[in-house]
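Internal tracking record. Fields below are filled automatically when a chain is submitted to the structure queue. Please do not edit lines marked as system-generated. If the sequence contains nonstandard residues, flag them in the REMARKS field before resubmitting.
Queue: standard
Priority: normal
Entity type: single polypeptide chain
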Amino acid sequence: MSGIFTILRKELEDHFSSTRFLLISALIVMVGVIIASMVGMGIQEELKGSTKPTLIFLFLFTSTGKLFSFVQFIGFFGPLIGIILGFDSINRERISRTLSKLVSQPIYRDSIINAKFLAGIVTITVVLVGIILIISGLGIRLIGVVPGSEEVGRLGIYLIISILYISFWLGVSILFSVIFRSTATSALASLALWIFFSFFVSLGANVLSDMVAPTPVGQTRPSPETIMKQAQVQRIVSLCSPVNLYTEATSTILNPMRQTTKLVFVGPMEQLSMMRFQNPLPLLQSLFIVLPHLISIIAITLVCFGVCYYIFMRQEIRTV
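SYSTEM-GENERATED OUTPUT FOLLOWS
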């Protein structure tokens, strides 16, 4: 632990004073507020003069509105925060020849990599807490409903999952920063992996499902058994993507009417109608449903940082 807090403070100062971080954070906050405003005004108009159902506050985060929901937005663009925070964390020190000076100080070598990862997590937490509080205040203003303890609990779990999810991408970017000497190469590698998990995993799932369960020759339409097998293969492959893990877990924990992590596309007004005739799941049951997804996100985050830690500790750092 020697020197870890000193490096942590220095990294936090660099993050919060970085222009690129401030720009991407401001962009994400701005788009998130716009999405919440559109959804909030839509719900306000729809419920004018009628009784407001319980747990309606969570619609600010799960309803798609005219574009996409806040959960989908963070699932797609949230990794950019982690990538920006970590893609040059180590190779920048090498290029500026400050890494050798750090290891020559009376601090443990692992304090450097630990402090950089911890500083990224603290920064991610500050950004996410800030944007959730901004959207919550805006929602109270628009809808006129104060969130209850059930909704606060679900938002808290959502916050934890989001921090872990973006921390995974932080670990990926730091890993590439350790492996590659060039900051441009590490940034491109991180972005390429993000694009792969965001787009090509879904395309690969469709292709693989057609290969595993092809439509028999001579049939214009696949049989129900073939359709079910294709859907099962697509789901298994899609769960290999952290983006899908995050989207399914957070959509389920923020929607008490969902009894499965499988995505069901239902509009906000249909959700309001369903809540009048169905009882929402308790928070604990929703947590049990998303527990495998949560464990998977924790596991890949720890594995990614563990590989990064191992490689960094075995690298040679020359004093110039």
